[in-house]
Amino acid sequence: MKPKSGYRSDCTRRGRGKVPGQLLRKEKDEASPTDCFRQDSLNAFIPRFAGVWRLFHFLKVPGSALVSQPKPFRIFVRGTALKDQFLKKNIGGLALVCLFATHNSIAVSLDDIQFWTGSGTNRAALVIEWSSPETFDVGNIVFSTVPAPIASKTLVWGYRFNGTVSGADMFQAVLVADPALYSVIDPTYGTYVVGLGYRLSGTGLSGIRDAIATNYFNHRYLTNATVDVDAAGPVLGGDVYWGGYFGPNWEMWVEKGGAGGFTNAPDRGTPSYWTSTDPDYFSTGFHGQWDLASTGLDGMNLTEGSWVGFSVAAGSYPFDSDPAAPYFIHKHAPALPDAGFTAAPVQIFSGQFLSGHWQCSFDCRTNWIFRLERSSNFVSWTEIANETPVENGRLVFQDTNPVVSAAFYRIRADRP
Length: 416
What we know:
Blueprint: E1 48-49, E2 52-60, H1 84-88, E3 116-118, E4 122-130, E5 137-138, E6 141-142, E7 153-161, H2 167-177, E8 181-186, E9 192-199, E10 207-209, E11 214-216, E12 221-222, E13 233-234, E14 239-243, E15 250-255, E16 275-276, E17 285-287, E18 290-292, E19 306-312, H3 326-329, E20 346-354, E21 357-364, E22 369-375, E23 382-387, E24 393-399, E25 406-414
Parallel strand pairs: 3-7, 4-19, 8-12
Antiparallel strand pairs: 1-2, 2-25, 4-7, 5-6, 8-9, 9-14, 10-11, 10-13, 15-18, 15-19, 16-17, 17-18, 20-21, 21-24, 22-23, 22-25
């Protein structure tokens, strides 16, 4: 059985032969990446490095001339230059992206997504479901030894935009805006997703490794992986991850009809699997309100109410063309987002110089350890205060030590 035009059937790797995967347009996306950072009204920078949320604030004592800047704040980014050119195009502003979670039986609307990346009047969303494939082999051939994900998890991100943007623009914007998310990309014919991971708990630098090599995600977007993606698993135990090239791969879905207009996330409904509308090649079909994508991220034009979903294939592509193979008949769209995930731990931050001392306040979330730290050089940091709230609410920190000239402050949030 010969795959229809558009299938990824002409790429080989590590001498294993050829395999179809996500449908994509065979040309590189030449559009510039969307600006994914936005400086908020508080002029605070709230990134998350290696599983740790940190908010930076620079304080210049009134009357001090140590630092001359129009705004008394500094943006500080730690990391290597793995994707410097990509990040330089996106460092113009900051917007945190956050995951909204709800019960599987309750609809998730665009209005429910609490944090967004991008800017504009149009809205779209990205949904990713991590799950274990049904099979790791075809016949007697094992195509994948990737460890099963530590949990079945479905998450959603929001994206704002104006003008003409692609699914790749949204995907890249979310990767830049959410440091907990990382991806392995094969850029041969565009943005072909072969691996996706997310930090659920713990700290450290996310990476994937096989028996020979380890690749780290300094900037969450890896296009030159040296590991075997059909064997590599996450370095950190708190990461949910799946990768597949010749083994069970990532499949892509769009809202029914692919023309946007969905206020709520598409619902795959009660059937466990999709309905194919192409009995010969299984290249088209639907699962509830989701359609199997007919083009790749780069060729996908977004509009108001567009939804893009990723799910793990049920099995490896059957080279014997068995029409009963799980890869063909057991495709499944993403489930509705999971209720177990929480929003960003630090929100609605404010800081001020009060009665000779600096203090800050912010909305916090339970089950995080919050620390106020201070530095004069961004190298050494001193803990000023810490607290682990037992419920969500407003948290206030104050530095009772006088500032001689200038100081940098940061809020650090760690998972227990």
